[in-house]
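User: I'm writing a tutorial on reading structure tokens. Could you give me a worked example: one chain, its sequence, then its tokens, then a sentence or two explaining what the tokens reveal?
Assistant: Sure. Here is the example chain.
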Amino acid sequence: MLDFEFYSPEEEIALPFYGEYGVRVFVKRDDLIHPYISGNKWRKLKYPLQQAKEEEKSLLVTFGGAWSNHLLATACAGAKFGFRTYGFVRGEAIDNPVLTLCQLFGMELHFVDRESYRDKKGLFETYFASSEESYFIEEGGYGPLAAQGCSEITNELRRTYDHCFCACGTGTTLAGLAHGIANQQRATTLHGVPILKGGNFIRDEIAKLGVLNAVDICLHLDYHFGGYAKTKPELIEFIKTFTSQTSILIEPTYTGKLFYAVHDLIAQRQIAPGSTVLVVHSGGLTGLLGMLDKF
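And here are its predicted structure tokens:
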């Protein structure tokens, strides 16, 4: 078994804003798990890496964009747990701090055009079909084993919350939380904040991961700020204010949109006075490196 021990406390945010609306807000600090195998990436990789080890695989093959937190997490996890790593990178060959870190952790990078990138299974078969040592990991870590890891968030909670929020890219973390809440019969309303346009597709993705009651999950589709890795001045100002008031660092792609949504929903009184809210901080703070010019 691989050693996946970590530290992720629940921390209450004591902002006057929350007090004005009679709401208590807590953060599950998965951003503290590891600086590079960050937040939900640690949880998503836990069981795939254990399976790879059991199957005596030695090479992790995965996929991501040029600023991918998942690529970086996989590269670092490979170095930590004794795997070689190989990353297919979407788009033209470039240098940036995240990809440099991937290479420092030993990952071999292979840039592919966007059309070829769409067929990830095909790429894996083309380059690794004859390799018995290779283990396929989907982009973003998406998959049932990853959702199983994310479901364990609920095992760690010290209290039952009225509401639980998380950001959504592939839907894996949301699916895991849904499984955990259902299995423990917690009286918690689950909310997802998709960070892409047209985020209602998340319902289909989590259904593929076995969440049969996806209609009971509240998806808030209006906080994408233009789409993946897109932003607007009001989001940047919110991030700067929130971080300066709480010491909790958030970024524009995922967690900034998440906390903005929570604040906005509280201001709209969609969260009732007296409620307790848990916000899952999914990490991914290296995403700031590609957006520093926005600040």
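What the tokens reveal: The chain has a mean pLDDT of 95. The longest helix spans residues 40-54.
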